[in-house]
Amino acid sequence: MITKPTIKDVAKLAEVSIATVSRVLNGSPLVQEKTRQRVWKAIEKLNYKPNALARGLINKKTQTVGMIIPDISNAFSAEVVRGIEDIANIHNYNVILCNSDLDFQREMKYVTTLQEKQIDGLIFLSEQVTDEHLDCFIESRLPVVLVATHDDKGLLPSVNIDNVMAARVATEYLLGLGHRRIAFISGPFDDPIAGITRLTGYKQGLQAKGLPVLEELILEGDFTYKTGYRNMRKLLQLQPRPTAVFAASDEMAVGAMNAILDNGLKVPADIAVLGFDNIDLTTKVRPRLSTIAQPMYDMGAIAMQMLIKILTDAPLEKRIVKLPFELIIRESCSVKK
Amino acid sequence: MITKPTIKDVAKLAEVSIATVSRVLNGSPLVQEKTRQRVWKAIEKLNYKPNALARGLINKKTQTVGMIIPDISNAFSAEVVRGIEDIANIHNYNVILCNSDLDFQREMKYVTTLQEKQIDGLIFLSEQVTDEHLDCFIESRLPVVLVATHDDKGLLPSVNIDNVMAARVATEYLLGLGHRRIAFISGPFDDPIAGITRLTGYKQGLQAKGLPVLEELILEGDFTYKTGYRNMRKLLQLQPRPTAVFAASDEMAVGAMNAILDNGLKVPADIAVLGFDNIDLTTKVRPRLSTIAQPMYDMGAIAMQMLIKILTDAPLEKRIVKLPFELIIRESCSVKK
DNA sequence: CTGTTAGCGCTTTCAA
DNA sequence: TTGAAAGCGCTAACAG
User: Fold this and answer.
1) In sequence order, what DSSP letters do the residues of A32-57 get, joined into one string?
2) What average pLDDT score do residues B11-27 get?
3) Assuming Cys at both sites, which of B30, B46, B159, B273 could form a disulfide with B5, CB separation 3.0 to 4.6 Å?
4) Beta carbons within 8 Å of B246's beta carbon, 6+ residues apart
5) Has residue B258 got a pLDDT over 70?
6) What value, to the nearest 5°, has the Cα angle with vertex A43 and ends A28 and B108?
7) Helix or strand holding residue B274 (H, E)
8) Rounded to 5 degrees, what are φ and ψ at B134?
9) Residue range A202-248, pLDDT digits in tens
10) Which residue ranges have CB below 7 A from strand C?
């Protein structure tokens, strides 16, 4: 069986030393033009590809980064990942994908494996970054950038959106349309990233207008279609009915929307619906749903840019980045009250 | 600055040779229990992690595979990728993710880079596998498994669904409901994977019943929401109207659905709608759409299993796998004519 | 400008 | 049961 050609084979064929081949490969200027051409010819003839393992062993750089995310099959993560990979690709990095399912054990196992593979840096998406996470990251001495999350102590660079502000602006928008009974289908009350923050924003929006926060109008979901649907059914029983619902995720918003329609009511004529997230499909499959657009792609892209800066010792202007969001208004909440 | 501990450091601390450390690391039985324990203690104390690059250099195995896909932010790919990663993870492989955007140049560049990184195998998703692709794969001598595509010559192992059969069964289902004027919104007529195949299945379904294939009922889209919407508008002008539409993608089906609703008609009372694909969101966000479920996750998982078998020299029962699909019937086409 | 040589961190004979 | 030494494919001094 024929083995892969190595630098030696190239050297032999080009009748030079392996050092010269190495120089040509790395674009060193101190090689005669004639020699360089001979070497390239040999490289092409043999279809030689340098071995990145051997290179990495010496350079202590692999041009590879790790990326630990909860679940790629979730449209969110997928957008972020695309942003990461695009920027990585531009800078000649490759990306190792790891699905954690938010399982701490798996996260830790991945960190170990990635360390062994000598990755240059790590991008980490998760719900909450605990002290154990932090310990592990520090111990690993890997450059880490957090996405869509942050650590309490602000030790690690991160990129995020301002969930409180986003929810507040959205609430104020609904108020501006004339709505006064605005229900809120929240994420889990113990989720510090996308749960309480958005709830807080909702409350702030009401309070800024001097309106009361009514407990009956606030229900807890878990971001899924099902809890959106169920909670909306409960809300429909209230007297008087809310005139608008703001859900902390698009999936819940769509669930709510279907619950409303199933009840024989109209969106937005009877009840306006506003979601949160803007996964790709919101705009494509559900072009009628109003939503708060989280720039998922940008979050990934910017996180990767930050990582690259760290890896190249470029200065980071900001360690904690908060990206602007966008309010996308469609039919589902476009009618003035 | 403290450097990473190497096998030398462990050897020194445990007062053994590096060979012994290596044996312990690789679970060799010919190490005394006492020595083994001393070594493990040293490993833990130093928090030593073996360098996978050095290992790979010798073993010619990296426990890493590459995965070239068109676009991870597309819900399809994401499902497949999840299947791939899950199986890879079980077998202690990592996965390098590459987005090609179906650009041949990028695909080739990725293959080169992945080769340099000494991946053990490659999973390739694309629309069409050309002869150039084939040349490149063969030249690379990498084990390759194709997903959701195949090569004409059947040289490479692949996993797929039977698009013709799927579309035929779907058409027959609609016929079984009593529909006789069934429109078909096709994918591009020059797409050999998901275009003509599904169209063929549709035609076969009609012909098997002795029904004519009417050109006016067949329109060409490109799988997107927009073309579904537009084509449906055209179909609505026909006299008589079709009583059912079968779209070659869920996005087009949803587009068609909205066009029907916008026209003041009801689904499925006036017109039944059937899609194709079953991306995750179809079931979650669009629980009312009937569809042909392509087992995307399974395709990824099975492809990875095949690759693992190839890598471990296990026999492959089948080189060309065709997975069964599933007809998921929901409200959108549940009414008998 | 080019070649020689010493490793990078590890596995694997071969001896002891 | 253990250690010494060779070498995987490459880069980077150092010499010439």
Assistant:
1) -HHHHHHHHHHHHHHT----HHHHHH
2) 94
3) B46
4) B167, B170, B171, B174, B182, B183, B184, B185, B202, B274, B276
5) yes
6) 100
7) strand B272-277
8) -55, -45
9) 999 999 999 999 999 999 999 988 999 999 999 999 999 999 999 99
10) A 15-20, 23, 30-32, 34-36, 54, 57-58; B 3-4, 6-8, 18-19, 21-23, 25-26, 48, 50-51, 54-55, 57-59
Q: Which amino acid is at A53?
A: L
Q: Tell me what percent of chain B is helix, strand and coil, each rounded to the nearest 5.
A: 45, 15, 40
Measured in whole angstroms, the distance separating CA B280 from the mean position of its chain's CA atoms is 13
Q: Is the distance from CB of B275 to CB of B294 less than 8 angstroms?
A: no
Task: Encode A149-169: b = buried (16+ Cβ within 10 Å), e = exposed.
Answer: bbbeeeebbbbbbebbbbbbb
Q: What is the pLDDT of residues B56-105, one digit of tens each?
A: 999 999 999 999 999 998 878 899 999 999 999 999 999 999 999 999 99
Cis upstream peptide for B240 (omega within 30°): yes
Q: In angstroms, what CA-CA distances link B335 with A66, B243, B332?
A: 50, 11, 8
User: Domains of chain A (ranges plus CATH)?
Assistant: 7-59 (1.10.260.40), 64-161+296-322 (3.40.50.2300), 163-293 (3.40.50.2300)
pLDDT for B280: 52
Helix (H) or strand (E) holding B186: strand B182-186
Spell B22-46 as b/e; 16+ CB within 10 A means b.
bbbbeeeeebeeebbebbeebbeeb
User: Which positions of strand C lie within 7 Å of protein CB atoms?
Assistant: 1-5, 7-13
Beta bridge partners of A144: A122
Residues facing residue B184 across a β-bridge: B218, B246
List phi, psi (to 5°) of A158: -150, 160
Sign (positive/negative) of CA torsion B48, B51, B52, B54?
negative
| Helix or strand (DSSP H, E) at A147 | strand A144-147
Record: contact B285-A286, CB cut-off 8 A: yes
Task: Please tell me the predicted confidence (pLDDT) of residue B74.
Answer: 81
Q: What is the pLDDT of residues A282-307, one digit of tens each?
A: 555 566 789 898 889 999 999 999 99
Q: Is the pLDDT of residue B285 over 60?
A: no
Distances (CA, A) of B275 to A247, B226, B319: 28, 14, 29
Is the Cβ pair A53, B118 closer than 8 Å? yes
Q: Are strands A144-147 and A244-247 parallel, antiparallel or unpaired?
A: unpaired
Backbone angles phi, psi at B142, to 5 degrees: -85, 145
Rounded to whole angstroms, the Cα distance separating B83 from A73 reads: 9
Q: Which nucleotide is nearest to B60 (CA to C1')?
A: D8
Identify the residue among B103, B141, B281 best suited for mutation to test binding to A, counting A beta carbons within 10 A and taking the highest: B281
Q: For residue range A108-154, what is the model confidence (pLDDT) as tens digits?
A: 999 999 999 999 999 999 988 999 999 999 999 999 999 999 998 99
| Cα dihedral A211, A212, A213, A217 sign | negative
- Confidence band of A72 (pLDDT split at 50, 70, 90): very high
Sign of CA dihedral B328, B331, B333, B337: positive
**What is the C-alpha separation between A141 and A157, in angstroms, rounded?**
14
